[in-house]
Amino acid sequence: MLGVGGLRVALDGTEILHSVDLEVAGGEWVTVIGPNGAGKSTLLRAIGGVLPFTGSIQIGGVEISALPRRKRAQLVATVAQQPVVPPGMRVIDYVLLGRTPYIPPLGRESAQDLAIAERRLRELDLVRFADRELETLSGGERQRVFLARALAQDAPLLLLDEPTSALDIGHQQEVLELVDTLRAEHGLTVLATMHDLSIAGEYADRLALLADGRVAAIGPPAQVLTEDLLREHYRARVRVIAGDYGPIIVPVRG
Ligand SMILES: Nc1ncnc2c1ncn2[C@@H]1O[C@H](COP(=O)(O)OP(=O)(O)OP(=O)(O)O)[C@@H](O)[C@H]1O
């Protein structure tokens, strides 16, 4: 579904990603983990088509650089780490922006577009905020709105850059379960980044550990979330405990 080969990205003259290779199958969930500054957001931004790169990024066998913007937006939806919040915009109108790739030039959203946006608001527990200005929402409420907009885009590839970092523990689980349900029902492919390693391992089929702009390890969560790899790449002292849905990572002092 997604094929990344020999990907290099330089920002302001500094190479951040050094020949990254990554394959994500249709319907698979891969989460990129790694220490601060490893290049996780840069990787997602390149795949999302907002950064220049060299190498190859293919979606469904087609190079993204060859896709017109509108077509790309029908294939890839992104929840960025810090999305731009348009001043004065109501929540429902923001979520409707997710339908833009389907609205003809100079056209208006259809009743179906509105129905899809409203369904996303319901699924993400946001109905009561529909008419509020986005700027007036709390950080966690706003993060759910960003996800609602991306899901309204109905793209087969979803890029999630730390989608639950502002959410309380209940909403974290609710949002990730919703993404997982959509994946099961519609074959959605998910590429995410996350700092919570236990949650990352519970939801992803595979984890890719990025360090200094290179893939240092990739595989099923139990293969990547090891005390040795986490010590080496995060300089963290942890205990790894076997959980029902994947390894549970507990930071320890000694
Ligand atoms: N415009 C820029 N010029 C130079 N370096 C940059 C620029 N933008 C980002 N970087 C650097 O690129 C590196 C990777 O950044 P990126 O945001 O991809 O990391 P990350 O793994 O997502 O980190 P975090 O976990 O902290 O969100 C960082 O060292 C960052 O300082």
TrEMBL record:
CDD domains: ABC_Iron-Siderophores_B12_Hemin. InterPro entries: AAA+_ATPase, ABC_transporter-like_ATP-bd, ABC_transporter-like_CS, P-loop_NTPase. Residues 2-237 form the ABC transporter domain. Signal peptide: none annotated. The keyword Translocase applies. The keyword tRNA processing does not apply. SMART domains: AAA (SM00382). This is Hemin ABC transporter ATP-binding protein. Keywords: ATP-binding, Nucleotide-binding, Translocase, Transport. One of its GO terms (molecular function) is ATP hydrolysis activity. It comes from the Bacteria.
